[in-house]
Structures are given as structure tokens and as C-alpha cells.
Amino acid sequence: MTEQPRLAEQNAAVHLPEPFLKWFAEKGWSPRAHQIELLAIAQAGQSVLLIAPTGAGKTLAGFLPSLTELAGPPRRRPGQAHRGIHTLYISPLKALAVDIERNLGKPVEEIGLPVTIETRTGDTPAHKRQRQKLVPPDILLTTPEQLALLIAAPDARRFFEDLHYVVLDELHSLVTSKRGHLLSLGLARLRSFVPGLQTIGLSATVAEPDELRRWLVSQNPPGGMAELIVVTGGAKPDISILDSEERVPWAGHSARYATPEIYSEIKRHKTTLLFVNTRSQAELLFQELWRVNEDTLPIALHHGSLDVAQRRRVEKAMGENTLRAIVATSTLDLGIDWGDVDLVVHVGAPKGASRLAQRIGRANHRMDEPSKAILIPANRFEVLECRAALDANYLGAQDTPPLVDGGLDVLAQHVLGCACGAPFLADTLFEEVRTAAPYASLDRPTFDRVIDFVATGGYALKNYERYARIRLNKDGLWRVSNPRIAQQYRLNVGTIIEVPALNVRYIKAGSKGSASRGGRVLGKIEEAFLETLTHGDTFMFAGKVLRFEGIRENECFVSNAPGNDAKVPYYGGGKFPLSTYLAEQVRIMLDDPQRWKKLPEQVADWLRFQADKSVLPKRDDLLIETFPRGNRHYLVAYPFEGRLAHQTLGMLLTRRLDRAGARPLGFVATDYALAIWSLADMGRMFRAKKPSLAALFDQDMLGDDLEAWLAGSWLLKRTFRNCALISGLIEKRHPGQEKSGRQVTVSTDLIYDVLRSHEPDHILLQATRADAATGLLDVSRLAEMLSRIQGRIVHKHLEQISPLAVPIMLEIGKMPVHGEADDTLLMDAATLVEEAMGTK
Amino acid sequence: MTRVLATTLPLAGADSIGIAGERAICDRRGVLYFPELRLLTVSDLHLEKGSSLARRGTLIPPYDTGATLLRLQAVIADYQPAIVISLGDSFHDGGGAARMHSSFRERLEALMAGRDWFWVAGNHDPDAPADLPGETVRELAIGALVFRHEPSAVRVEGEISGHLHPCARIVQQGRSVRRRCFAGDGGRMIMPAFGAYTGSLNVLDRAYAGLFRRETLMAYMLGAERIFAISRSMLRPG
Fold first, then answer.
1. A775, B33, B95, B161, B188 from B164: Cα distances, Å
2. Which residue among A482, A826, A837 sits closest to B177, beta carbon to beta carbon?
3. Which residues of chain A are within 8 Å of residue B237 when distances are taken between CB atoms?
4. B15-148+155-234 under CATH 3.60.21, yes or no
5. Which of A344, A468, A583, A724 could make a disulfide contact with A729, Cβ separation 3.0–4.6 Å?
């Protein structure tokens, strides 16, 4: 690090204009080597990917090429009214765009650059957007959805004709989602407007930088890559696992046992950022902290369901350093500057090494000082996971998910957007789409089916020709058939599907709502959760214990609950499944008693006890235990492949066990294990090889069984709903009216049933199955596991429950039991009625 | 109509109930059958809803008419009724019958052949369907029963209606189950919607206010294999 600055200074003189050098000198700073390197690459006309840890001056690096160019002679040609946009900055978060406007404004002003910077997000008022179209700023800061809208406007080509750079912030988090697919198509469009367009990607460390390098540039010719700059180093974070005096619980997610110890850490530090994985964990931790907050320290709560005004207040207080602690979910994950955080506490296991690294990067937003972090495992398996994550972080291991092929639903949305902008030739658009990395391997027949879908729905029964949304004209161009189509498109752009949610509004206890409608809105909560509540139930939200009073239209009425205990627990589940990499680390650790020494004594004891009573799985083995308990028989498997894959495995195994006559009753899945219970003695059945475990876990379960189960599954219906909304089959919003979530849900479920029975190969069902395989079902991961464990299944038939099985057995009864047994519930209700009425 | 035939047992999964003294079979597929009258009634078919929405740019699969007719065909085959009453909103809009694909029209006509078929006028289809047999009526009275599309505001014993698309919801073991249902209080009955794309409205919604006697209201929820009779106290709004 000592040699680099001098070299950078020499280079800086070559690449940086005088006013910039002066500014750096006045500040007493020198440009960092990677900032100058990036500038040099951009000046040579290349696109570039910058990978750097938080606090490395990434943002300034990303904008230096634009700022230095804009500092030069004015670009306006004589007689030209206005120059167009020079640089487009795209970030995944609205808040980030706003933040950058502030941070970038400062150097621009101090250097005295004639550069205009503006944001354009969903919050930008219509008159300002209008003005931006007429008098565009030099630098426009925006989001992927706004880009999609801009390129669907009829004047898009002219609007972007002066564009030089597109700066893509937090690229690692964008590329793995459908938003990333839509953005990649938008970029392809921009490249067709401006052939020399350069991209600058800014990213945290990722497992496969080459995937992002390809993503940034045209894939015609195939395999092209942006230049790469990697900034390593930064001080190593100082991370520890809380070595609790208390007993670490077997199961659960609250980490309530550690509250006093967390509180004393908060007292010892200036500002503590507490991360949890789910909203319900955030609510619980906040509640627990205030229970012990004898000094009434300013401790705040922040998560995505809270009312926006409330969130902004917390963010502002954070920036002004008036808070001592803030409990947050992932809303704060991304790169916003949060004042002087000197401690990050991570409650619950981080689920992925990369996510841990990023969250910890929030402490001490300066690269050269070590970040300080404490991990708080909520249960014993999480102790193992935290230990593995901690080792991984020191190793610099990365486990960002691999990129998947672009969604066809997203492509359908883009095709309609292109048509709204200008008529297109199918041949030209096909070539253009294939320059986007996620669509590089798209074949022509599939593309043509997508066009057919956009035009008339793409059905085998050709009934809708006269209602086509786009039409092929004699000149070979596809045109929007009606201006109303474009209007509808603009209302429905984007790939973010919101879960149906209701406003939570305060009223006086016991009142029916109508008289006291004016109460404050606390935020939004999922309809699915509210549906399970009865009048008078209590639950936790917005840092309070609330009493459920009822639902009226789009609002849920609540009042203050007496007392401190919420009756209804809300298990949101882990949002993120355990990453493959971390799962492997956990398996390796279990297999190596030497490494148990680093674990807390009580956890090491637990593992020794397991070795004594049963066996610990070898790193590549799958351990299956069977034992009786009560009048049931249990099977517990320990694949460590994450909750989603286990859930799918559970569904498939119960089907097979049912066929084999085991009479399974239900199952639960966690990130680590899967438990199935049945009436028949499964252990004895496996011993008699009726069926053998090898046959039960055979890979062929991913064939017919999967198909058969999927067909009626709610998982697929939910996925279909997303595809239907993104592809534009169903509208999220219609001019003049907003459909409620319920209406959309009902109709997509019905549509799914009809489409599946009449045209199972329809392109939207194809897109749905592809999504489910990588998403909610995690079939790909299950497939890898099934092939890994062939011939490596270890069966232990036990007299009683083993120590390792205790955590998942404790989940039974707490988590919803999976199965499609809705009719059983109806039966229970009907029986109750019959008993009460004495009819039977 | 006091003539009593030998009691026909309900099919598997159907419940026998009384409406204003007439015995009826509530079928889990959403139709009501009066064995003594050999009369089958079905409500809110909403045929051609898909193409109706397609006209406005929402290109949902054009298979709803086919799917609805297929299910109708199955119940008619099971009960072999002499009289069929389609209780209104048989087509999603006035032009529906004219838009119907010829293959669907042929299937519908085959179903109608050999029986008395009544099209009760609904708010979606106030006029007779174009070029289809059957008789179009505002309402129909048979014995103690009155068949009309919209339930009347004043209580009428023996009224069978549709229009509101009732569904009911219960919560058991922390899980919520919502199903289409027949809603009845022993005096009047509101039929579930039969059409493949029809949504539904909770029977506790304000739209039903005053229609039923609270004490005797039952929701006959449609299960996969049978009907579940649930009393009002078990029902949840939403």
C-alpha cells in the first residue's frame, strides 16, 4: 500500500484535469490507484468492472470518467438547443440514487464543474419528469424500472443520443434477479441507440467476476468482457461469535437468551447496527431490547414493512448520529452511508458468507480500519453455521448465487416496451436481445413464441387475432395496435411483485373502526398472515404489541394490546436459504472433531453426545435416523441443503412413502434437516428393503413424481402469478383503478388451472416451471444432492430420538405442517358443527 | 308439486338439504338438483369471459368456455335432469353467445337437447343469447320455489338465486381455507358461481346484509370430494 499512492499520483497527473488535482490537493487527499486506473480504461474507450470493498471510494471512481469529460469544453454544438444525457447512473434502490445526488453534488460544487445532476425515480413529480425530457441533466440518477419506462417512450432514441456512460451500482445484487434481466435488455437497447456506449459496473466481491464482465458488454461477438479492476485488502474485520454465559437453545430463531449480553455491547459502543434475517425477528429483538433498556438508550427499528415516513425519520436520525442502536432487516444491506457505526451485531445465522461480509462492511465505512462485528447464533445449528461463516469470511470465500438464463416473462414485457417506443423488425430485435448476456443463448423459435405471446397470447386455439396488442404490418414492422396498450404498459412496468399487503391502522380498543378511522398507519403487513388472526388476537408489529380488531376493505385495524406478550407468533421463515458453500462448511465441521474445539463447550458437548448415541454424518454422506416416539414413527434426514430444497424433498419423499404403505402424516423442513412422521414403522421397512433407502432417495424422484406433485402445488401457482404479472398477461394496475391483491390472486389461480389442463406446454407455463426449479423449489440443488449421496446413505435405526434430531423435532407444531390437506381442515370444522348441532 | 317420488340418494360427496320444504341435493361441483322435480340448476356460468377480457387487451387463455362446458357436461350426465335452469350471467356479456367458437356452441346444444332449458336473465346478459335454443325468462316459479338471478331485498321463502358468487372462509390450526359455497338459511339459497374464471365474494360481506336469517345461515363449502356444511359461527370475513 505504500508504493501505490506515489504511482497513482504520477498517473493522476496524466489522466486528471487540473481542477481535479487541485481539489484533491486542497482536501489533502490523493486519488486512489483504482480510481485512476478506471479513468484510464474509460478514457481508452473501454467498459470496466470495478470490484472493491465498501469504503474504497467506488462511487467517485465510477463518476470520474463522466466528471472529467464534462469538465472539458461544452458539448453543445452551435445552434443546438440542449445537449442530451451524458451519463446514466442506475442503482437498485431509490434511496441510493438520492444519496448519490447528495454525495456527488459536493465535489462538483467544490471543483466548480458546470455539471447538472438530477434523480428520476417513482417519487419524482410529473412536472419534473416532463422538464427532464425537454432539458435533460448531464447526469441522471435512476432505477431499472425508470430506464424501462424511458426506453418505451416514443422519443427514446433522441433522448439518449448523447449518452456516453452507464454507471451500474451494486451490480452484484442486481444481476441475480429478474430486475437484472430487465436491465440487461434495457442496456442492449441503449447499445443499439448508441453503438459506442461504455458501461462502468461497481460491485462488491463476487464468486465469478467474469459473469459480471460479460453482463456489462454486448455478447456479439459471444464471450466479450469488460475490463476488470479488483481492489483487495481493506483491514480484516474483527468478528467474534458471542460466547454466551447462557444456555444456547436447541431450536428457535429469537436469540432471546442473549438479550442482556447484546444490550451491554450496545452500551459499550457508540452506534450499533443490529442485523436480523426476518421482519418478525426484528420486531422481537427490538421488543426484547427495550424490555432491558434501563438507560432508555435511543434504540430504533427499521424494516421494509414500516410506514415510509417512519423509516425516513430513523434514517435521518442515523445520519445525524443521534441513535445508539438500530435493529434492521435487509433494507439497509446496500451501500448507503449510515454515520459512525462502530459495531455490527448479526442475530441469527447469516445464511451466506457473502451476505455476512457485506453486512459487516457497514461498520466503519472506511476501508483502512477494521470493522467490528459479533455474531449471535439463535440456536445450536446456527452456532455451527456462524462458525463456518466466520472461517469463510477470513478465507475470503464467496458464495453469490450463479446467474441464470433470462426469464421469458421479462422478455415479453421488454418486447411490448420496445413496440411502445417504436415499431420493430423481429430479426433486428432478436439480434439485439441476444447481445444481453442473460439472453445470449436464446433461440429463435422461443423468441418468436414470445412475440406471439405478446401479440395474441400465444395460444394453440387462435381465437384472439382480432384483439392483438401488437400487429405485424406489411412493411415487416411490429407496431402497437392501439395507444391504450402503451398507456397500460407504462402503468405495469417492472418486475417487482408485491406480496398482497394491508395497511395497519391504529384505532381505539373495541371500537369497530368507522368512528375512529383517523388513526395512524403503522405500516403494511401481509394479507396471508392477517388471514389467520381472529378478533382479539395479539401480535407484534412496528415495535408494539397490537390487538387485532378486524379488517375493513384494504385496512387492518389494530389497537394497543394490554401487556407485553404477543399471542400469535409469526414465523416468517428464513428469507434466505443456507448457501451451498456454507452448507458444505458445516458438514466438514461436523466430520472433524478437531474443529469442535473452536465451538462453545455446550455445543461441542452436544456433538459428542450425538456421536455417542447415534453417529455424526461424514462430509459427503447423508445421515438418516429413524425412531419411534409416542404412537408415531419418525424419519430425520440431515442433508444441510437449505429449507427450500428440503421442502421439495419432503413433498417428494412423502409421496413415495405413501405409495410404499408407510402412511406418512406430515413433515417439517429447516435449513439443516427434514423430519417426516408416519403411522408405520419406517425404520423396519428400510431394513427389510421395502423400500430400500437407496430406492427411496433415487434421483428418479425428480421425474414423474416431481411433475405429478407440481401440477397442483400452490408453489407453482404463486410462481405462475408472478410470471403472469411480469409478462403482462394480467395487469398489476389498470388505468384509473388498482386491483387488490386478492382479485389478482384468485384470477391467476383459476387461469393457471384452465391453462394447465388445456395447454400444458404454453410458454408461460414453461417460464413458470423454469422459475420454480431455481426459486421456490430449488430443484437444481436437490438434484446435486441426490447425485452426491448415491451409495452414501447411512441409516441409524434408534430406540429413541437422537441429540441432533432435537432441534427439528422442536419445530414440529411451531411451523406450518406441509401438505395439501385443506380439506382435512374443512372436515374438522364441519365435524365440530355436526357435534355441536347434534346432527351426527 | 306435492308429488313425492321414491327418494333418490345423493351422489357421493353431495349433501341433501331442504329449501322451503323441497328436498335438494347440494353437489360439491356447485350445482343444485331437485330429485322430485328432476330439475338441475346452475348459476353464473360467465361463458366467454376470456374473450370478453381479451377485447380490452387482457389476453387470458381462451379455454374457459370449454372448461366450464366440460364440467357442466359431467353433472348433466350424472343427474340426467329433465329441466335445467341457468340462473343468469350465463354469458359474461351480451355478445358472448355470438362470439362463442362453433365447436363450443355444438357442445352446448348437445347438452340442451331433450330437456327443458331456461336462461334466466342476468345483469351481464339481460337479453336472450343469440341463436341458441332454450327459453329466456326474467324469473321462474316452480311449486314453492322461485328462481331468479339477483336475490331480492325482501325475504322470499324458496328463492334460489346467484349473482353474488358466495364463498366462505374458515381458520383451523392457524391456516385459512377459502372455498366457493352455497349459502342458505333453510328458506332461501344463493348458488356459487360455476364458471371457470369466476371470482367469489365472502358470504359475510356487506353485500349480503339482511338476506339471511343469521341464526340458521349455513355455508355449504365445496370440497375436493364432498360438501362441508359450516355454520355461521365458524365463518370468517375476508
1. 37, 20, 22, 9, 14
2. A826
3. 550-551
4. yes
5. A724
